[in-house]
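Predict structure. Chain length: 225.
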Amino acid sequence: MTAIHRRVAVTALLGLLAGRALADANTDEFFRAIRQDNDAAVRSLLARGFNPNTKDEKGTPGLIVALQEGALRVASLLIDSPRLVPETRNAADESPLMMAALKGHVELVRRLIARDADVNKPGWTPLHYAATGGHLDIMRLLLEEHAFIDAQSPNGTTPLMMAASYGTPEAVKLLIEAGADIGMRNQKGMSALDFAQRAERQNSVELLQTALRWKLRGGAPRGQW
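Prediction complete.
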């Protein structure tokens, strides 16, 4: 290698290192602004060409961090970004739509769906997460958008099971009336009623027991509650 070639190579390497350092600095600034809900700082970064789908060191994209942190101004800004890829997921395969559903942000859920976020996906789904939080408006919206009501997580858990264990009686009732299969069991052999009993959710236990009685009679509880 000639002296000229060595200088060119060194210059290229220095440029690459400087570019990486700048990218790292911008990434740090991006996630710091998210946690502060500083939409002005994020808007400035995006205007300079920063990628709104950038992930932190744990593999979590900025929009999911914003939703987790309650940084709703930044979340709204990122959803509006033309460069946003709504299905950019974290290391646990959670999507922004799932996180918005869990946190109960119905308008952000609506806007993510409008951006073609996936209502249905393998494994855990937005409906599982909405049912976990007992967020009725979001559950209704997802079902209207053809969310699979009996979606199964990797271990066979359904939205109804999550509602029975962690959600509210109203969420349980909504899913039953919408046609959820109350007899399904997960890989551990547990039904929604088992989930409710284990969590000592007596109101949900009674709803599920009533629904099971109706099922045994060959009827349905819709309109009879």
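Summary: Confidence is low (pLDDT under 50) at residues 5-22.
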